[in-house]
């Protein structure tokens, strides 16, 4: 089983490429949505359920079958790997991530960890920034995600969150 961990804020074409490569290698795929308790923040605008819906729509269209697990943060690095294992229900054969913290914790726990490259040079941070600034972002995400984000007015939410964060920062300076 291959375990892919990420926040998917939002799911983009780089994430999809990682899903496809993992699925080509092993049809037993688990996707863990990290920081699942966070939403309505500049860095975490989408709820876990919204991120899960984005993933499900894309996987269905691409014919990829995967188990999706929500992984809320815990305040203890030493217990994180066991915590994820308990939520997944078993130990993975391989972990796929781009996050150095995740890589470190799982390698220390004896896992084989594959660090993905930044496919297409895409990052969710850049996508959220483009959304917030009213710039082009849709070409970086699968069409199913574009349609879903627009249906829930997620791009408008990201703009409002950035505006709110800027107001808070200006009040504190």
Fold blueprint:
Layout: E1 2-6, H1 13-25, E2 29-34, H2 48-62, E3 67-71, H3 77-88, E4 94-97, H4 100-108, E5 112-115, H5 124-132, H6 143-151, H7 154-171
Helix pairs in contact: 2-6, 5-7
How would you describe what is shown here?
The protein is an alpha/beta fold and 173 residues long. It has one domain: Rossmann fold. It has 7 helices and 5 strands. It has a 5-stranded parallel sheet with strand order 3-2-1-4-5, sandwiched between helices. Helix 2 (48-62) links the parallel strand 2 and strand 3. It is globular. The termini are far apart. The mean pLDDT is 95.
* Physical arrangement of strands within the biggest beta sheet: 3-2-1-4-5
CATH homology-level superfamily: HUPs
Number of helices: 7
Mean pLDDT: 95
Order of SSEs: EHEHEHEHEHHH
Tell me the count of domains.
1
Strand content is: 5-15%
Low-confidence stretches: none
Give the termini distance in whole angstroms. Answer: 49 Å
Helix content: 40-55%
Principal-axes shape call:
globular
Largest sheet: 5 strands, parallel
Quaternary state, please? single chain
How many strand units? 5
Radius of gyration: 16 Å
Query: Which class of secondary structure composition applies to the elements?
Result: alpha/beta
Quick recap:
The chain has 173 residues and is of the alpha/beta class. The chain is built from 7 helices and 5 strands; from the N terminus they run βαβαβαβαβααα.
């Amino acid at each position: 089983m291959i375990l892919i961990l990420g926040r998917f804020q939002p799911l983009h074409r780089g994430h999809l490429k990682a899903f496809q490569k993992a699925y080509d290698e092993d049809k037993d795929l688990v996707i863990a949505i990290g920081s699942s308790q966070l939403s309505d923040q500049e860095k975490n605008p989408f709820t876990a359920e919204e991120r899960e819906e984005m993933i499900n729509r894309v996987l269905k269209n691409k014919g990829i079958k995967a188990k999706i697990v929500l992984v809320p943060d815990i305040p203890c690095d030493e217990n994180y790997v066991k915590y994820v294992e308990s939520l997944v229900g078993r130990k993975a054969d391989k972990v796929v991530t781009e996050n150095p913290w995740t890589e470190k914790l799982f390698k220390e726990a004896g896992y084989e960890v594959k660090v993905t490259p930044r496919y297409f040079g895409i990052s969710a941070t850049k996508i959220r920034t483009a959304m917030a600034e009213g710039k082009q972002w849709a070409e970086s995400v699968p069409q199913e995600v574009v349609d879903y984000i627009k249906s829930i007015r997620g791009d408008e939410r990201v703009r409002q969150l950035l505006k709110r964060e800027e107001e808070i920062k200006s009040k504190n300076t």
